[in-house]
Amino acid sequence: MATSATYNALFGNYPVHLGLGTNGNVPLPDTDKVEKMMIKVDRNVFKNACGVAIPKTNGQRGIKLAAALGIFTNLNKNATLKKQQYLNILDQINAPILERANSLVGKIEIGPVDISKKTTDIDISAELIYLKDETETIARTRIYGAHDNIVLIQINDRKIYEQSIEQKAGSEEENLPQNIAEIIKIIEAIDAKEKEELRKTIIINKQLTKEGKSKQYGIGIVKALEGLIQNGMLSNDLMRLFSNFLKNL
């Protein structure tokens, strides 16, 4: 979404929910006019981008290709005031676009990833240098806190939109339970409705695990863990404890 918003901003097509104006006639990018694109993401987005296949690409992965694909999408296609619509923009990708996007990968740079930050906040920045009307134009976009939450849109030195960000003091991880006893205490305190939601989550995760054992997905973490357990390199006690406990919920 970040690169889609960045390219669309060059032609006055902004996220419809921001009320800044839209343009239904945004042209597909001319790959020769794309001079450079720079992407910076948080550590969690970087990890997921490396392990998760990109929709409509026959299993291809990577931040650079995802970023390149974004500029070939119209941010406001089938637009409504609901932000969640933007998470489906890759539905617009087809084989010719995929080929053109792959040709742009060499023009994309990924900024350094700060692995020391333990915050779980999503933080994605995109900068595109594009020859628009034969003039070098720089567009910037930043997403923060959620995959569809744009906090900055800027063209050259002019800020089109900016939303203040309240940086969280400390890590969210500090509020997580520290041991099994604390986890069990939390689970025992939940009500019937929450238990039902938890049951659904357990069922879904079991189905995902079964599927992960039968096929190769992402970085193959299911098969990797199973292999470590079978080879005696990873204890299965914790998994068995939770499995038995959750069955009695």
Q: What layout of secondary structure does this protein have?
A:
Layout: H1 2-9, E1 34-41, H2 43-51, H3 63-70, H4 95-104, E2 108-110, E3 123-132, E4 135-144, E5 150-155, E6 158-162, H5 180-188, H6 192-214, H7 221-230, H8 237-247
Helix pairs in contact: 1-3
Description:
The protein has two domains: 161 residues, 60s Ribosomal Protein L30, Chain: A; 71 residues. Helices cover 35% and strands 17% of the residues.
Keywords:
249 residues, alpha+beta, 60s Ribosomal Protein L30, Chain: A, 6-stranded mixed sheet, disordered C terminus
Strand portion? 15-25%
What structural class results from the helix and strand content?
alpha+beta
What is the number of beta strands? 6
Shape: globular
Query: What CATH architecture of the largest domain do you see?
Result: 2-Layer Sandwich
- List segments where confidence is low: pLDDT < 50 over at least 5 consecutive residues: 168-172, 244-249
Count the DSSP helices: 8
Task: Write the element-wise H/E pattern from the N-terminal end onward.
Answer: HEHHHEEEEEHHHH
Q: What number of structural domains do the residues give?
A: 2
CATH fold name of the largest domain, please? 60s Ribosomal Protein L30, Chain: A
Multimerization state? single chain
The percent of residues in helical segments reads 25-40%
